[in-house]
Design a protein that fits this description.
Blueprint lengths: L1 H15 L19 E10 L9 H13 L5 E8 L8 H9 L2 E7 L24 E5 L15 H4 L4 E4 L7 E7 L3 H14 E2 L2 E2 L14 E2 L5 E2 L11 H12 L2 E5 L3 E6 L5 E5 L20 H13 L16
Parallel strand pairs: 1-2, 1-4, 2-3, 5-11
Antiparallel strand pairs: 4-6, 5-6, 7-8, 9-10, 11-12, 12-13
């Protein structure tokens, strides 16, 4: 059934767009439980080599994970503006010697996005992995983040992310399950609004649905509409897709977790009282479909490996 749905979706996309072989996606078998991975994007790869300074933070990221006991792969999405652009042989040898995988990718549908954010969409193609944590190149893990891979199972979602201070989402860290269905749908949504130099953007509906008021990472209620940072970039794109189209968006706050499912993106709040410890945010939940044990386990994982770009009580746990 899953393959039939994917084939129908892919067929409809191919009728609308002429794509190269790089857009081909192979779904993993149902109930596949393969290895996990971290992914990080770097670029643009060009003869000017302005990207080279970011290779050393990526090496530091890799070494920090290994030193903490991580067993997961680290995949580099090397963003190229020219299809023939490549890193130098010395750079490739240096990265490969540390066990880093490298994949060269172009702007999907010719749209790079702010700070090349849309290049991150290629990570959804990597269905050889069961779960991927995507990190920005300037992120340094302070602990073994491997345990957090299973937070996606505990939250019963395919996308777990963080809110931004000035944007509906922060794309510096997020956790997701690779999927051809989501890859194709994300690419199709991107192409419906932007393709090369063509734009079909309308502020009223943005990516296809009006954005109601939203809560930023500091807990402030922000105004409705698409007047926020990176609204047209990958942060607005992924938020809109998983909230309004996939109906499967979970965001971690310092005092709550919000799960947008089913009813047109309406949130189910998992919220603690002011006197509760922050890491027990999921122990009291309003969604009767999720057993309390899952909530407690996820809450502990959030506390142990807090991944979002703001602290708990002034402390940071997972990332620097």
């Amino acid at each position: 059934k899953r393959m039939k749905v994917n084939m129908l979706v892919v067929s409809s996309f191919l009728l609308r767009f002429v794509r190269g072989e790089e857009y081909r996606c192979i779904d993993a078998p149902l109930d596949y439980n393969g290895p996990n991975a971290y992914a990080v994007m770097v670029g643009p790869i060009s003869a000017k080599r302005k990207y080279s300074k970011w290779l050393f933070p990526i090496l530091a990221l890799r070494q920090a994970l290994v030193a903490s006991g991580s067993k997961a792969d680290v995949l580099i999405l090397a963003a190229v503006e020219n299809a023939n652009a490549r890193m130098t042989q010395a750079e490739v040898a240096m990265l490969s010697a540390q066990g880093l995988r490298i994949r060269y990718v172009q702007a999907p549908m010719g749209v790079a996005g702010f700070h090349m954010g849309h290049y991150k969409l290629w990570a959804w193609q990597h269905t050889e992995y069961s779960r991927i944590q995507l990190l920005d190149a300037d992120v340094l893990p302070l602990t073994n983040m491997d345990r957090f891979f299973h937070a996606i199972d505990l939250a019963q979602t395919e996308f777990l992310g963080c809110p931004g201070m000035h944007s509906v989402m922060n794309a510096g860290w997020f956790l997701f399950r690779p999927s051809c269905k989501h890859f194709n749908a994300l690419i199709s949504l991107l192409a419906s609004k932007f393709s090369g130099r063509r734009s079909n953007w309308q502020d009223a509906i943005g990516w296809g649905a009006p954005i109601p008021s939203w809560r930023n990472s500091g807990g402030k209620i922000m105004p409705a509409g698409h007047d926020f940072f990176d609204a047209k970039g990958n942060q607005g794109h992924m938020y809109a897709y998983f909230r309004f189209f996939a109906n499967d968006l979970v965001l971690i706050y310092s005092d709550r977790v919000e799960a947008y499912r089913r009813k047109q993106g309406k949130a189910n709040l998992y919220q603690a009282s002011p006197d509760d410890a922050v890491w027990s945010i999921l122990a009291q939940q309003s969604d009767r479909h999720n057993p309390p044990s899952l909530a407690t386990d996820l809450a502990q994982a959030v506390y142990d490996f807090y991944p979002c770009p703001f602290g708990i009580g002034g402390r940071r746990h997972g990332l620097q």
